[in-house]
Amino acid sequence: ESIKTVLTSPENRILIKRMLIKCADISNPCRPMQQCIEWAGRISEEYFAQTDEEKRQGLPVVMPVFDRNTCSIPKSQISFIDYFITDMFDAWDAFADLPNLMQHLDNNFKYWKGLDERKLRSLRPPPE
């Protein structure tokens, strides 16, 4: 009933649509783990290339944390989840009940934390 009340306002519907688009844009940590890892790698490589190009051209480096020689991908993912994802998806979960997404988010956060605790900077642990 409360959802119906929220959706009766055109302004609220527009806001919800905008929030949903934003969530879709940054939802990688809510994907199944292997997809999350794959896309974290792709996104990191894009940022590494940007940083490389900024250095090559003598421009200010916009995201110094994404220096491919020093970056910890697990730390970057943990920070991203802590700063942007958790509160936003907790709110969506309260609104729309998203247990699968929230479970993926929890699993992925624990995965990145585990790599970071082992002082690993890569997407995956080394083969055993």
From TrEMBL:
Residues 1-119 form the PDEase domain. One of its GO terms (molecular function) is 3',5'-cyclic-nucleotide phosphodiesterase activity. Keywords: Hydrolase, Metal-binding. GO terms for biological process: signal transduction. Signal peptide: none annotated. This is PDE8A phosphodiesterase. It comes from Nycticryphes semicollaris.
